[in-house]
């Protein structure tokens, strides 16, 4: 890929990640409800993001390879807090915060722990998408799930593919996330269309 085009892809991917959860957050705040969203899916997504970020930091990857992760993590945390608020489970949010905080530090106690966590990271992140899909299939209603947020996730996953050819484990992660993000986006759009025709 040409250097100018590669730079543009990096810039647009970072810009997308900087606002990736905002459409979802706006939809939840406008509705005053988190209908259509799976808390378990978001918790798994957060776990996958934290492990991936911790791995990148631990092994000294260049900052530009993971710069968007803290921004996405912050957005997921804010979204989770809003959902917990609307579901009346604010105390549970504190419990999850403590678990994730402890997990962040435990990941690097030993090298094998972070390596194992990274090996499992793709499964955890894939599970987050599958849990969201299952939730959509069970309710047959996309509710407040934002197709724009999931569409941006498709772009973010696809944009990472060209930069990760050298690391097979990370490349597999992005291919799996791309496929699952497309699937969730299509499911949200399908249920949104089905609901409008009823």
UniProtKB/TrEMBL annotation:
Subcellular location: Membrane
Cellular component terms per the entry's GO annotation: membrane
InterPro entries linked: MannP-dilichol_defect-1 (IPR016817), PQ-loop_rpt (IPR006603)
Membrane topology type: Multi-pass membrane protein
Matching Pfam families: PQ-loop
Chief site of localization: membrane
Keywords for this protein: Membrane, Transmembrane, Transmembrane helix
Highest rank taxon of the organism: Eukaryota
Gene3D superfamilies, alphabetized: 1.20.1280.290
Signal sequence, renumbered to the chain: none
Transmembrane segments: 34-55, 67-87, 93-109, 170-191
Name of the featured protein: PQLC3 protein
Native source organism of the sequence: Prunella fulvescens
Lineage: Eukaryota, Metazoa, Chordata, Craniata, Vertebrata
């Amino acid at each position: 890929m040409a250097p100018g085009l590669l730079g543009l892809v990096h810039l647009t991917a970072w810009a997308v990640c900087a606002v990736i959860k905002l459409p979802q957050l706006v939809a939840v705040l406008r509705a005053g409800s988190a209908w259509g969203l799976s808390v378990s899916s978001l918790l798994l997504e957060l776990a996958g993001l934290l492990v991936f970020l911790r791995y990148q930091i631990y092994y000294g990857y260049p900052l530009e390879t993971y710069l968007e992760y803290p921004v996405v993590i912050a957005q997921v945390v804010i979204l989770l807090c809003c959902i917990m608020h609307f579901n009346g489970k604010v105390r549970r949010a504190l419990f999850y915060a403590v678990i994730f905080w402890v997990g962040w530090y435990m990941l690097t106690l030993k090298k094998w722990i972070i390596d194992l966590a990274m090996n499992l990271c793709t499964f955890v992140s894939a599970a987050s998408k599958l849990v969201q899909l299952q939730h959509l299939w069970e309710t047959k209603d996309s509710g407040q799930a934002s197709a724009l947020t999931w569409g941006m996730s498709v772009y973010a996953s696809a944009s990472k593919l060209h930069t990760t050819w050298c690391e097979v484990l990370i490349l597999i992660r992005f291919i799996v996330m791309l496929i699952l993000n497309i699937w969730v986006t299509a499911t949200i759009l399908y249920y949104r269309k089905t609901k409008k025709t009823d």
